[in-house]
């Protein structure tokens, strides 16, 4: 039932194991939770989960506000990463499939 690392289908929350997988895949070292890549990947996973949640629960406006806050936070982190290191930014958006 697991639809990949960034697709936690069926759940609104990321499981501990899934979170550890994302940290291992996008982090620079073990236990790296502060790098922008890891933070953006975790936010992307949560955003994807909430989008799946909204296909069923269309009137959940409280959670939709949380989704918009997460999207804004991810946008800020992406802007920071783009300003600091454009190559890391381009690699990350390609890996996550954020831009077309």
UniProtKB/TrEMBL annotation:
Protein name: Small ribosomal subunit protein uS15
Keywords of the record: Ribonucleoprotein, Ribosomal protein, RNA-binding, rRNA-binding
UniProt keyword Ribosomal protein present: yes
SMART domains associated with the record: Ribosomal_S15
The keyword Signal is annotated on this UniProt entry: no
Stated role: One of the primary rRNA binding proteins, it binds directly to 16S rRNA where it helps nucleate assembly of the platform of the 30S subunit by binding and bridging several RNA helices of the 16S rRNA.
HAMAP family, per the entry: Ribosomal_uS15_B
Residues forming coiled coils: none
Molecular-function annotations in GO: rRNA binding; structural constituent of ribosome
Pfam families according to UniProt: Ribosomal_S15
Family according to the record: Belongs to the universal ribosomal protein uS15 family.
PANTHER family in the record: RIBOSOMAL PROTEIN S15, BACTERIAL AND ORGANELLAR (PTHR23321), SMALL RIBOSOMAL SUBUNIT PROTEIN US15M (PTHR23321:SF26)
Complex and partners: Part of the 30S ribosomal subunit. Forms a bridge to the 50S subunit in the 70S ribosome, contacting the 23S rRNA.
Organism: Pseudoramibacter alactolyticus ATCC 23263
């Amino acid at each position: 039932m697991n639809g990949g690392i960034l697709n936690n289908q069926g759940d609104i929350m990321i499981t501990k194991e899934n979170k550890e997988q994302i940290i291992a895949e996008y982090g620079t070292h073990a236990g790296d939770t502060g790098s922008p890549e890891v933070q953006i990947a975790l936010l992307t996973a949560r955003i994807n989960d909430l989008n799946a949640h909204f296909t069923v629960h269309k009137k959940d406006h409280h959670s939709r506000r949380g989704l918009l806050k997460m999207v804004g936070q991810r946008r800020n982190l992406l802007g920071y990463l783009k300003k600091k290191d454009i190559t890391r930014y381009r690699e990350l958006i390609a890996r996550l499939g954020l831009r077309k």
